[in-house]
Design a protein that fits this description.
The complex is a heterodimer of chains A (518) and B (325). Chain A is an all-alpha fold and 518 residues long. Chain A is built from 21 helices and no strands. Helices cover 75% and strands 0% of the residues of chain A. In chain B, 39% of the residues lie in helices and 20% in strands. Chain B has 325 residues and is an alpha/beta fold. The chains are: A mainly alpha (518), B alpha/beta (325).
Chain lengths: 518, 325
């Protein structure tokens, strides 16, 4: 191992990144190659690109800007139910889109709770449909993720820094510039990029809450190219535009984020001396209460409409739930197999290209990835018998960008702090992984795994392209129930999905941070 | 990639029935669901064909056609079930479908004599509302009223495209004016039928674009007579759902047998209360109780497949123009 400067190799991670890039670009090419005549981008496509950029930028900006005070309040306050609240924060993000929209409308819709209250007070009801509706829904779905990512970074500031700041009697401003600003600069651009990428590929949410064809996103234009015009060339082209936009956003974000960490701490329990004035305490409480209300009300709506039918669900729904758990488990393992080596590679300073490769999965149109995979798989095997493995793989790829955002900062820290020590002890490879890296990243691995598990549980995704009538995942079952007029059963099945996703997420997330405070 | 291989092993390709022939039918997803016609159809056909009927569900009609185009001449499918008249011309243009040999005495409000596609059910598009609402009695009246409606996007949904054709069939060159007048009635446009119908049941709008047969579901399956479909004086546009045999099928005889079975009593009597549409050939026992309460339009509107194909793109841009302002 002479000349080796780091205890773990970057090569497996680089390999994983290359594999991903080849897979995703490969699906794009597979679709493009099947194209016949094909036309370029028309006026409507450019309008779709403009609208997509506008709504994604607004949604990401608002999610992140609101996420900062909420995360800050959660980081420095301790109250009963705090852990439960943080666990609930993961939920909107992992809901199947259709369910989230229905829950949201039950609260904010024309006949929703808020409108009812307003009308009783003699005020006009809410008008949710329009650009503001799209942004509202995207903030509902992504504020929790942004908050969790920022909160995570807040909690990773070593306890000693807070102690030092208190000893030096830092006032609020000094505390912000010395402690919080450097952390925010490191984490916020990445969080923005991830939320931006999610909103970029939004389709059903944007259309439904946008109120009409004005709210056409690139993904809908891709859908139209595929289904209405069968113009595969244009579909691939539009998907390429989506990829480029995401990659550019990611590069800008990475360029903006500084990478100086705080150095090592002694892992003491964090105690905070800052922000103890009554006014700040009140402000924090208001932020936490407002965020909790905004996020929990729609979930409560889903609970209320689903609870009555929960135990009367047909057996096939329960077996679909088992299928979903199996797919989600495999998907989570796959995700870790990609994400951990990639995070180590980034920690080596082989950063940007690997991180961008990780984002590709989110940026590419699910419809194009699915169709491309279908074309490719069909050359070798019966696509229907591979429906579940392919679904697991695609879900893993889609969860990867989130996992990387969670894993990369902590992997970098650990390598920075303990890399040299490891090398001086001649502790490399597996030993370093087993004794230092993995144990120190347990909380992040748990969080990432929980997220991947829940995301996969909630994804309708490519299973519809490979559907086999005998096997169905829970989201597909819900979709089928709705298609068969059975809205009540669908609501109950959605609640089941919600409970299972939260449960699995909680299990993994808690498992990872058993000894840490969260 | 060990995980993937492992996974493939777990889920395993179902062992092929080596001795019984297999007939693969591609259809839309709601057909194969537990609550759709699929399970009963499979049982009934397998009882008489000495074969294995494999129903594969692929989203909706438009996705189905896209899939067939994608797979091309060596598709795994033998029969495609679930296209409608708006897709028939595009389907024929692929040259992938073969002529059928089915003859039946159809109970359709129109004449059907297509050599390639066999109809199996049909329905009228209609706006569904709460029965206690005083509903408008025409598209024109709806456009002038302040009733709030939910519709589907024609680019991603069959009913959405149906409404486009409906307005075009009723108003021809005046269609853009109707869409202009309808614009302020439209609460929102959804990706598919399920989203729109779900929002309607949650009370987001007064009316939703669906079928005249929708109230039958609530009446028969839920014993709930609170939903009704509005009868419009311009007439109602129809959806005729059809199936066809692929030229590249390796089971052409079985495929013929399936198409014949499809217009037979056993299949047709399954349709009304699973697909919630009118059967193409009324079964011997007649329609189920409850269907007699449905509105029956006096005028049936339907473009021939050729007309529909020719009008589609122009009608879409009229729609986009009217609603994008």
């Amino acid at each position: 191992m002479a000349g080796r400067t780091q205890p773990v190799s970057a090569w497996p991670g680089i390999g994983a990144a290359v594999f991903l890039a080849v897979l995703i670009l490969g699906t794009l090419f597979a679709v493009a190659l099947r194209a016949e005549a094909g036309s370029g981008l028309g006026k409507a496509d450019w309008a779709a690109i403009r609208f997509t950029l506008l709504q994604a930028t607004l949604s990401a900006l608002i999610s992140v800007v609101l996420g900062i005070p909420v995360a800050r309040a959660l980081a420095r306050r301790r109250f009963a139910g705090r852990r439960a609240l943080i666990a609930l924060l993961g939920v909107p993000f992992i809901l199947p889109v259709l369910i989230a929209v229905l829950g949201l409308l039950e609260v904010f819709g024309r006949a929703g709770w808020v409108s009812t209250v307003l009308e009783t007070a003699g005020l006009p009801s809410l008008r949710i449909y329009g650009l503001h509706g799209v942004v509202l829904a995207h903030v509902f779905l992504n504020l929790p993720l942004a908050t969790r990512l920022i909160l995570q970074a807040w909690q990773e500031i070593p306890a000693e820094r807070f102690r030092l700041a208190a000893q030096l009697n830092c006032d609020g401003r000094a505390f912000f510039w010395l402690i919080e600003w450097p952390m925010l600069r490191r984490i916020v651009p990445g969080a923005f990029a991830v939320v931006f990428a999610i909103c970029l590929t939004s389709f059903a949410v944007a259309l439904t809450l946008g109120g009409g064809p004005k709210a056409t996103t690139i993904e809908l234009a891709i859908y139209q190219a595929f289904r209405f015009d069968f113009d595969l060339g244009r579909a691939a082209l539009l998907s390429g535009v989506q990829l480029v936009l995401t990659v550019v956003a990611a590069l800008v974000a990475l360029w903006l984020s500084s990478s100086t960490g705080f150095g090592a701490g002694l892992d003491r329990a964090i105690r905070r001396w800052d922000g103890q004035t009554a006014a700040i305490k009140w402000l924090d409480s208001i932020w936490i209460a407002a965020a909790a209300l905004f996020l929990i009300l729609p979930l409560a709506a889903i609970f209320v409409s689903g609870a009555p039918g929960l135990f009367g669900l047909p057996a096939s729904v329960w077996s679909a739930a088992l299928t979903s758990i199996l797919v989600a488990t495999i998907s989570t393992l796959l995700m870790l197999a990609f994400a951990l080596p990639m995070a180590f590679a980034v920690a080596h300073g082989k950063g940007q290209a690997v991180e961008v490769a990780g984002l590709l999965g989110l940026a590419a149109s699910p419809l194009v990835i699915g169709t491309g995979l279908f074309i490719i798989v069909r050359q070798f095997a019966d696509p229907f018998s591979l429906a579940l493995p392919v679904t697991a793989l695609v879900n893993a790829i889609m969860a990867l960008p989130f996992a990387l955002r969670i894993l990369v900062p902590s992997a970098s820290d650990v390598v920075q702090r303990y890399g040299k020590l490891g090398l001086s002890l001649n502790m490399t490879g597996i030993a370093f992984l087993r004794l230092v890296l993995l144990p120190r990243m347990r909380a992040q691995i748990g969080f990432a795994a929980g997220l991947a598990m829940a995301l996969s549980m909630g994804d309708l995704g490519v299973i519809t392209l490979f559907a086999d009538p005998d096997i169905a995942t829970l989201p597909l079952k819900i979709y089928r129930l709705m298609g068969a007029y059975r809205l009540d059963d669908a609501a109950a099945a959605a609640l089941l999905l919600l409970v299972l996703s939260i449960g699995l997420f909680w299990l993994l997330d808690r498992g990872g941070r058993r000894h840490a405070e969260a | 990639m060990k995980h993937l291989v492992f996974a493939a092993g777990i889920f395993g390709a179902t062992a092929a029935f080596a001795d019984t022939p297999e007939l693969t039918v591609y259809t839309y997803d709601s057909f194969v669901s537990d609550w759709g016609p699929g399970p009963q159809v499979e049982e009934a056909f397998e009882a008489q064909c000495n074969c294995d009927l494999k129903l594969v569900g692929i989203e909706d009609g438009a996705a189905l056609l896209a899939r067939i185009k994608l797979e091309g001449p060596n598709s795994d499918a033998d029969v495609v079930l679930g296209l409608d008249t708006n897709l028939v011309t595009a389907a024929k243009e692929t040259g992938l479908f073969a002529e059928h040999s089915v003859s039946a005495d159809y109970d359709l409000p129109i004449d059907w004599a297509d050599p390639v596609f066999v109809p199996y059910d049909w329905g009228y598009f209609a706006f569904v509302h709460q029965a206690d609402m005083a509903a408008p009695d025409s598209l024109q009246a709806l456009a002038e009223s302040d009733a709030k409606i939910l519709i589907q996007d024609p680019r991603s949904s069959t009913p959405g495209l149906g409404l486009l054709m409906w307005v075009k069939a009723a108003y021809g060159d005046e269609a853009p004016a109707i869409w202009d007048a309808l614009a302020d009635n439209i609460v929102t446009v959804t990706k598919g039928w399920s989203e729109a119908y779900g929002l309607f049941l949650e009370g987001e709008a007064d009316m939703v674009l669906s079928y005249t047969t929708s109230p039958a579901y609530h009446l028969i399956a839920e014993e709930d007579d609170s939903k009704a479909a509005a009868a419009f004086s311009e007439g109602h546009y129809m959806q005729v759902e059809v199936a066809g045999k692929l030229a590249g099928s390796d089971q052409p005889d079985l495929a013929d047998q399936f198409l014949a079975f499809m217009v037979d009593d056993a299949f047709q009597s399954i349709i009304p209360t699973t697909n919630w549409m009118y059967p193409a050939v009324t079964p011997e026992g007649g329609l189920p109780d409850g269907f007699d309460t449905l509105v029956t339009p006096e005028t049936s509107l339907l473009f021939s497949p050729e007309e529909a194909a020719a009008l589609r793109d122009a009608a879409l841009s009229e729609w986009l123009d009217a609603l994008s302002q």
